[in-house]
Amino acid sequence: MTKGSGCYYDRQEIRDPADREKSLFHALPGLLHHAIENTEYFARLLENIDPDTITSREALASLPVTRKNDLIQAQRGKPPLGGLTATAMSRLAHIYWSPGSLYDPEGTRNDYWRFARALFSAGVRQGDLVHNTFSYHMTPAGMMIDAAARSLGCPVFPAGTGQTDRQIEVIRDLRPKVFVGTPSFLLILFDRARELGVEIRSFEKALVSGEAFPAQTRDRLKYEHGIDAYQCYGTADAGLIAYESEAREGMVIDESLILEIAHPGTGTTVEPGEVGEIIVTLFNPDYPLIRYATGDLTRILPGESSCGRTNTRIAGWMGRTDQRTKVRGMFVDPEQIGRFSAEQQAIVRSRLVVTRKNGQDDILLRCEISPDFTDTRTKLLDSLRAEAQSALGLRCDIELVEAGGLPNDGKIVDDRRAVS
Amino acid sequence: MTKGSGCYYDRQEIRDPADREKSLFHALPGLLHHAIENTEYFARLLENIDPDTITSREALASLPVTRKNDLIQAQRGKPPLGGLTATAMSRLAHIYWSPGSLYDPEGTRNDYWRFARALFSAGVRQGDLVHNTFSYHMTPAGMMIDAAARSLGCPVFPAGTGQTDRQIEVIRDLRPKVFVGTPSFLLILFDRARELGVEIRSFEKALVSGEAFPAQTRDRLKYEHGIDAYQCYGTADAGLIAYESEAREGMVIDESLILEIAHPGTGTTVEPGEVGEIIVTLFNPDYPLIRYATGDLTRILPGESSCGRTNTRIAGWMGRTDQRTKVRGMFVDPEQIGRFSAEQQAIVRSRLVVTRKNGQDDILLRCEISPDFTDTRTKLLDSLRAEAQSALGLRCDIELVEAGGLPNDGKIVDDRRAVS
Fold this sequence. Notes:
Chain A is an alpha/beta fold. Chain A has helices at about 15-40, 40-45, 55-60, 70-75, 115-120, 140-150, 165-175, 185-195, 215-225, 335-345, 375-390; strands at about 65, 95-100, 100-105, 130, 155-160, 180, 205-210, 230-235, 240-245, 250-255, 255-260, 275-280, 290-300, 300, 315, 325, 330, 345-355, 360-370, 395-400, 415. The longest helix of chain A is centred in the N-terminal third of the chain and has 22 residues, at about 15-40.
């Protein structure tokens, strides 16, 4: 695609970056006024702020951050929605539940969570049938994609999670062009279809999210299955934050928010290119979030994308602020473990346990093994030990765990040094 | 409520019945033209019909019926949608899967499945938070209610199926006014909340469906929990077919269809009041269904509802045409078994197995027992044997089955005489 060829979701994506910056910071005081006047939470948090003076990145960086735990505490203090929404509960479209028992409001706007931009960038076009494997129950994930696809004029098959064999039957029959879900579930569908002797060949495009998406998985999808898969990054509170384009150079930031990268825990801006926590300020009239600290790590990429989109790019998800850890002087990011697990066919998931033994850091990589591989444990142990050392740059012991043996709680680095 | 007090979803509900009949049969030739001109299936099925002559119940009854199996065969013959839809797949909103591998199309109209009328009749009003426990995955059930609630201006919590303990936490926190789901799941929520010591008291209204709803369950919800629960009847192909009103006299037929009651298997109209199969003709421009035989049994109630709604009423679901059976000269309907199971606290679900032994019909009622009751098996066997005999009017043996021991496939009467 040539720059300016028109293959963009809207013209906002190709604005002069200076115009975008000006436009966002021109709108920011209005957002702050709205949040202060219509939500109890921000009225209190920003009571000594003059919104009209917050018109630059420096000024924004002086405001306090809000973390997921602050939202949870606000909701516990003033149930059910914590005085966080500018729209009455009775005028919302949906309310969802997130882990930690946070309730996420959804307003009635078309494509409320803004994932249409990410689907479009992944090549999804009007009339494409979308096979959506995110859950619609409790969590907003399923509906985020559902509403976005329908706003593009795409019909959706709401597959949800699980029921793998039935999903394969449905894919064979309906021949959807588009897969949406986690990359690992897409690979599970292909592996299981092969076991069943069913050919599923209709997918041409995929939007994936919810876990690391290493280049090796991307290539396997492209060369084994003919699928162009793009990733995006978002949260249950904020919706879409950034999305990949065909340039494959990091992820482009969405147009409806201001993104900062801050030193975890402090909220102060990092140097350009330095890894830090993603903080977003969201232009959402129903649920304005001012300096919402996501707990996710990334860094800003320099320059502009070759796809022609002019917004700043981030490197993609680089782990959680609360799981990144230092072992024997080396940083270990959950992303590294995630990529290692994804690259090893034998591994379903793994978890790094960090302890202190004889005054030294000790690490054990617990690997949940796919049932297909249980017959080659000794050989597997040796090969995984070598691979892990090369992937992490650290010598570590491997423990093989039966399928289902690791808790599926999203924890990848289990740092027990503080308590042991 | 007084007749004509205005508590109706729309004025169609209180039309002069003669006007409704005239209006439906005035529109019928147009529906037939549309179906013949825009769907391959009805073009073939009705090729020798002159639509302009089909302007009465007698004329309609002369047309061939279409069964679920016909839809399945049409879809297998011409995948994926069988030449049944007048709207191209690329212009639909959703496609769903139903047991038997039937794919149900959903168009983009607001409240496509027409359940808003049933929610309104159950007392649901703008701004009420709806806790929706139907599944959104694969099946249209969840979205049928979701879209209907939002069209009334009600926010929805998409709970889906399962995760009972988490649902109780959510209900405690969000205090929804409205429950939607099966009556048995609502009772499970209350029983489990009591075990957990959590008070859930916010529900005031419920719309229930998907299984029998005996008066005893209705009363328990009303007097123990203060909930006015109303039932409705619909299918994954047709959407809403009939709904209960506060008159509690059967179910009022929806305004967008013509309903006939026919002798199962023949399609010929039964005498007024006689039990037969529900056949619907649906004014749905995306998916016109002409004389769709549902396989569900009911009968027409005489007269008009005291609530002021003037449409014909049906008695509610009386079982499946393919499961109703005759044992020792007596009809046994799945509904009888369902009601018996619902009335016995010890029973989760049960299934009647009918065989031939020594030239005689032999029946065994297999009862899946709630874990709470396993310690009193002998006493339980005696009491269930007596209760079953009184409920079915037939002597039968009882077999107690552990929780989860019966297949959850909707089969209630398992007639093995043909094969044994």
